[in-house]
Design brief:
globular; single chain; alpha+beta; 235 residues; 33% strand; four-stranded mixed sheet
Length: 235
């Protein structure tokens, strides 16, 4: 498929990714069936994973170069609502030096004391939003995703009860909200974008979620990992 691209301005901070062209991708992929989004179905899928291929594994080619990868992990919390599972997401505070105001999963850099990626994801979720590790039923891990800043991120998927008394860290988290998993698992809600900068192409996905009068603009690494989750469940 060929499609128009957009060059990134020299001042990257001034570039509004929401204004990037939407690629006319006619993939006609089906949504994940509701029956496959039930807790028991997800447990079975992680216990016996299918053969599948992630859509996006690295944000841009050659991002690591000679640098050593920085290991990180995020928790993909699936909230067990009576109307169906939702995905708990955060909005980062505006004053942060990187990715300020963006939509993200709870997570961060791996500490030397973390036993593994799951330990990192659970610890970070506790530190960022006050989600107790004891309340997370870990289902499994997804393939790593390498960000443009050189982080190799492991998504850890887990089920959590509804209406936990979360306590977001005001230094990192401006808001916590939920998006129905069924909505996120519909490819019709996935927008594809591409820009070219000095011969390097970067592809990303966005999932703008209408939340009342507002819009939660899910994009970048978060949207890429959700897109891979769709591929995993649809395989």
């Amino acid at each position: 498929m060929t499609a128009p691209s957009r060059s990134l301005p020299a001042n990257r901070r001034s570039f509004d990714f929401r204004s990037a062209p939407i690629l006319p991708v006619a993939e006609h992929l089906p949504p994940v069936p509701d029956a496959a989004l039930l807790p028991d179905a997800l447990r079975a899928r992680f216990a016996h994973p299918p053969q599948w291929t992630p859509d996006i594994e690295i944000e841009r080619p050659g991002v690591l170069g000679d640098r050593e990868a920085v290991r990180a992990a995020v928790l993909v919390p699936l909230v067990r609502r009576s109307a169906g599972l939702t995905v708990l997401l955060t909005e980062r505070t505006a004053h942060l030096s990187s990715h300020s105001g963006q939509i993200a999963f709870p997570g961060g850099r791996t500490d030397p004391t973390d036993a593994d990626a799951t330990a990192t994801a659970l610890r970070e979720a506790w530190e960022e939003v006050g989600l107790p590790p004891s309340q997370v039923e870990v289902l499994g891990r997804m393939p790593t995703y390498t960000t443009g800043s050189g982080y190799v991120v492991t998504p850890v998927v887990g089920l959590v009860p509804p209406d936990l008394p979360l306590q977001p860290n005001p230094g990192e988290v401006a808001a916590v909200f939920e998006v129905p998993l069924a909505w996120l698992m519909q490819p019709a809600n996935h927008r594809h974008h591409l820009w070219e900068d000095q011969g390097v192409h970067r592809r990303w996905v966005s999932m703008p979620y209408p939340d009342g009068p507002d819009e939660r603009y899910i994009w970048g690494a978060t949207a890429a990992m959700l897109r891979n989750f769709y591929r995993f469940l649809a395989a």
